[in-house]
Design brief:
The chain is an alpha+beta fold. Helix content is about 15%, strand content about 30%. The protein is built from 14 helices and 43 strands.
Amino acid sequence: MTRRWLCWVVLVAAVAAAVVVIGEVVGEDVVTYDGRSLIIHGEHQILFSGSIHYPRSTPEMWPSLIAKAKEGGIDVIQTYVFWNQHEPQQGQYNFEGRLDLVRFIKEIQAKGLYANLRIGPFIEAEWTYGGLPFWLHDIKNIVYRSDNEPFKFYMQNFTTKIVNLMKSENLYASQGGPIILSQIENEYKNVEGAFHEKGPPYVRWAAEMAVGLDTGVPWVMCKQDDAPDPVINSCNGMRCGQTFAGPNSPNKPAIWTENWTSFYQVFGGKPYIRSAQDIAFHVALFIAAKKGSYVNYYMYHGGTNFGRTGSAYVTTSYYDQAPLDEYGLIRQPKWGHLKELHAAIKLCSTPLLLGTYTNLSLGDSQQAHVFQGKSGECAAFLVNNNSRKIVKVTFQNQSYELPQASISILPDCKNEVFNTAKVTSQYSTRSTVPVLMFNSAKQWKAFQDVIPNFEETSLRADLLLEHMNTTKDKSDYLWYTFSFQHDSSSDKNLSVYSLGHVVHAFVNNLYVGSAHGNHDNISSNLETSISLNNGTNNVSLLSVMVGLPDSGAYLERRVAGLRRVRIHGNNEADSQDFTNSSWGYTVGLLGEQLQIYNDEGSDKVQWTNIGNSTQPLMWYKTTFDAPSGNNPLVLNLGSMGKGEAWINGQSIGRYWASFRVPNGDPSQIMYHVPLSFLKPLGNLLVVLEEFGGDPLQITLETVSNDEMCGYASDTHLCPVTPWVDIMSNKGMEKNTRHHGRRPRVKLECPLGKAISNISFASFGNPSGGCESENHVLGSCHSSNTKVIVEKACLGKKHCSIPRSIRSFGRDPCPGISKALLVHAECSSRDLDDPRSNLI
């Protein structure tokens, strides 16, 4: 193949002459920046960051989550600050339990990592009302997120509250703490145009206000390409290596605050799966093409939207496809592949941060990004943008094969230590096992919530009230009731148009139907036939929100709830419009008001045995003892419809198993039960069911990732070891593709477990691979593979088997390209077993 150098562009990336210092120097550990990177302790840094939101996990989980992030090559933990959780009532603050922000930051510090505090205080984050407290809605003349004095007053109050809290605990890097970055506002450019002349002044005010708080560390505005100096503008998205226009000043570094590791899921929506290869490709591209120096994974651990915290239609499980899944288990190969990527890029740090940059064409869709240090250090990123073809390129007189849509990293400009498309990490499989069945009717008690009639309401209006402003976010539920006289017994049609997420209808206390919208179209139209009495008829309509909206301009003007109600016959002339009639309202359900989901409130109502027929708006309760072991626990609510569940008075979130995705599966059936929510005996489980699900099929299950798969072929190289001194070529002769580097299968069990079974092993040409659930022997197979793998792995926490003929004694089929495929299982190991020694 003829090589043509299409262009030779030299871009100087020397260290900027001026180093920006943020804020007052409080201590020795001041964080600064220049046009290349953040500078910490006087040193330029390439930093990998991971988002872990403290309210979406528990304090008991924090140490493990942070430790696993660090082991995965993460340098910084990034989190939003959740205003509506910390100040649920004006002037009343909560920093306890899952909201103990100081404890969370100190845990980050204890693990030796940095922190990025995204105060916002508007955060979006698929969090109800974008993190704003709903009491703001009642502030006179307020306009959120604009050059509006009432909003700026309360925003500054809360921002100052958080900054002063961090200062009081010496948590900023300028005080010796871990916080090296803070964020003010969040993706404001998305809405700025809607505020016209009130937008730009607000941006300038927010930046000036934040910098004036003198934290001693830089401030960031994400997706704000005109972020005022000295605030750094940053990129959010999946492909910032392609889409980011760059810093708005030559003295600011290229920062990626949100690299989406998957995407949030909504009830009724398909899950989005982003591959480890795609994430790695765009990280490497951002580092190389945009000279990026800070990349944050959103999310690194997604966690759980406990209680009513998720925004409109968002599932209780949040970013479960992140490197650490909802329960904090390592998700392979994503976690391991990114760990290897981080190690490879860190090997390039000196030329990346202090060298000159050159971009070379290696073909129609191939480039080399080359960084040359002053002392001869050299690092190269070879890019193949062709998503369909494997290509061979020549770089510095050597040939390299680049898989489709991949980047090879050469820390010495010679030896490839990592390719974004070559996954060498094991694949793990998550599974659940039932440990408690709630299948006996004798285990359960039931209580049907009260359906209010107009005469029983105290809140009245001659129009349909807006849902959110009526409930003040104290409940998902708002009853709309009215009564009217009818002169005969007859069948009619009830027509309800609503901007609430769900509406349930009852006529004369009998359930007549429901309707709901979806994430893309929240409106719902209920059309159902009803039977009317001769005389007084009572209509009770329950409007339900599944989280408040979380984004968009003029959030304070959003409306929800019922908008039009009619009763009509087959003839439109026989129609009555009740939209502007006299309405009675009740906020919330009786069971909520009495808090019957906890021990004390549970005694305030009369519970009965479960009947044979299911009814809407039913509460179910049972008790159970905690199962043994430390595996994560989930409630399988696949048999239920829609509602909410509590363990010992703590909500594990909303469920909506009856809302199916297009292929017919529920959006989510497993709901996280943190171990810290449990006590050894007599745990109270309460479930509120709106539609009429079957509680006798609920199970409590353990979660594990005890099955794993490893695959190695000629195109799958063993992962880079970050301690190899590539710049001096120590160890490179034995560890490179060009000098006999051998692919390996590497298997590792979770902490406290060992490899207990090899269910499949083949050295030859097996089919299926690790991305398939089915592994099949091919025409070429070494019959002693399983024996050799078992000898190397059984009883051990981790093992490594080279894919080589010598490892298996003979070549089972000369002339055929061979691979090694192993599927293994882990279990709690016996520490007395001599095989349990680690290798």
